[in-house]
Amino acid sequence: MTTIDSANKYCTLINVFTVAPEKSQELFDLLWEATETVMSKLPGCISANLHLSDDRKTVTNYAQWATLADYQNALKNEEALTHMKRAAALASSFTPTTYTEIWTHSTGEQFT
User: Fold this and answer.
1) N or C: which end of the chain has fewer CB within 10 A?
2) DSSP 40
3) Whole-number CA gyration radius for the chain
């Protein structure tokens, strides 16, 4: 489960992929598969969330790792690299950025 809490010093990865709309579902499915079969099994993986933009031109991966070192080790895993190369080939560009410092605000509203 994704937890956004400034007390936790997780490594958060936000990777924004720019993609042709006709390739967006394929990229989304590939990232989902990679998460389910490889990334989620690697040490330090906490959570992953995929977002497909309404215009289908952007797929965003919001993932949490226990530490930056855990994420960096995942980048060395051969199975993970295979999936990442396939994802890169589908996207016209991508920007993976890691974060450890966060601030959150919630209005407390609950929507149903």
Assistant:
1) C
2) G
3) 15
Helix H or strand E segment including 60: strand 58-65
Provide the residue ranges of all domains of the chain, joining segments of one domain with +.
11-99
Contact 15, 96 (CB under 8 A): yes
C-alpha torsion 98→92→82→62, nearest 10? 30
Closest by alpha carbon to 50, among 62, 36, 37? 62
CATH number of the domain at 11-99, please? 3.30.70.100
What pTM was estimated for this model as a whole?
Answer: 0.89
Contact at 8 Å (CB) between 49 and 14? no
Parallel, antiparallel or unpaired: strands 45-52 and 93-99: unpaired
Q: Could you list the pLDDT tens digit for every one of the 112 residues in the chain? A: 777 777 788 999 999 999 999 999 999 999 999 999 999 999 999 999 999 999 999 999 999 999 999 999 999 999 999 999 999 999 999 999 999 988 887 787 776 6
How many beta carbons lie within 10 A of that of residue 107, not counting itself?
Answer: 5
